[in-house]
Amino acid sequence: MAKKVRIPDILANVLDFRKHPYGSVRYRGAYGGRGSGKTRTFATAVAIFAAGLAANGVSGSIICAREFQNSIQDSSFLELKQAIQAEPELAAHFDIGDRFIRTADRRINFIFIGLRHNLESIKSKAKVLLVWVDEAEPVSEKAWEYLIPTVREDGSEIWITWNPLDPESATNERFRKNPPADSLIVECNYTDNPWFPSVLEAERRSHFERFPRTYHHVWEGGYREFSDDALFREEWLGEYIHTPVTLSSGYLRIDTAQKGEKTSDFHGLVAMGYDKRDPLHMYVLDAQRKQCEFPDLADWVVEYAQHLKEFESQTFSFSRITIEDANVGAALQSMLRTKLREAGIKVNVQLTPRYGSKFDRALEAVNWFEQGRVLFPKGVTGWQKDKGEGLKALRKEYLSFTETDTHASDDLLDPLIWEVVSRFGNGDPNGSGRYWRGSLG
User: Fold this and answer.
1) Residue 367 has what pLDDT?
2) Which of 54, 175, 285, 431 is disulfide-compatible with 383, CB 3.0–4.6 A?
3) Which of 123, 117, 124, 104 is nearest to 47 (CA)?
4) Domain 9-192: which topology?
5) Which strand ranges, in their side-by-side order, compose the sheet holding 27-31?
6) CATH number given to 234-424
7) Over the stretch 187-207, which tens digit does the pLDDT of each residue have?
8) How many angstroms separate the most distant Cα atoms in the chain?
């Protein structure tokens, strides 16, 4: 298939199949910081690669892997789908469903997989032609040792994209410090993207001024240097005296302790609401935490859900409970659905897929906190079941959050950060479908 798209020049040599045909190298890859467009470029290249193989009568599978993948939502599925749909000529060659992508002639099928728990299953995949490992920084040495020999078709390739973090990680040791001889792997940063958007340029400058110690890692592909400085500032928190009469929706986010035992860490929950007239601000309504065993955890959440239901009116509804898909999260979701139904409480219970570290998520949320998007009550309101003690604990976690902390006790701050990132986004288009130059033949 002959298809021309624009990509950053630095990636053109890596992904030009006319210059370096399929099978002429074993590894292709790129590492670097935010805004380089490398992930979208590789996603587009994977699609072109698949369409080209199918057009030449080749059948087989392409595996899109990450170290962590709990569901299709936190795989490379969406990135690949968007890359295909951004190019109408390319989209004509594919059949895309809610959970699958394949070429229209069904010769090439895409498989989305998490390496941490699915290495054994790769053995059973038929005729693997290509593996693309995105967000490859945390992939372990054990995973690489297992994965590489399973990609054994003649001419098969392995592609890697990642943001460096630890110089001693297996991925950096293998592909940055000591790249294989049969590889094309380059560093690619925002400076290599001639279509770097103005919104990210503003983010980059702000990051440099406020958090210089993490700037090199986030934007320039450097390894992370850890900081003891507090990430958040007190003056960023907005305040309200009364919730607006037009408060229209309420949500509950839950962070579960690792084991769900009386002697474990706290389980934390944070209640938030949004004003339909002002969707750009979040009202923090209440925060609660508790040490308890798993069965009691479900009862505690149901009791609190009943508390929130008391505030429902013609204008306000409590409609969603979101649990991080970690620890006992999935088991809690299942039990809550039963117990809430038995209690006559109609509310959607869902899981947030895991990704990144607590600090990674916090870093994404900084911009929104700084803009004053998050509002805390000034004083005690009727929403709070403990006279505001839970909110005081949440504020303390917020003010003491640093990069070097273990983050083992951020039981209230983490669900708040999850809601901020999920609601407002991370502000990072990171190579949306506009950023192309050069050609992929």
Assistant:
1) 85
2) 285
3) 104
4) Rossmann fold (3.40.50)
5) 94-96, 101-103, 108-114, 60-66, 128-133, 157-162, 27-31, 183-187
6) 3.30.420.280
7) 999 999 998 999 899 989 988
8) 69
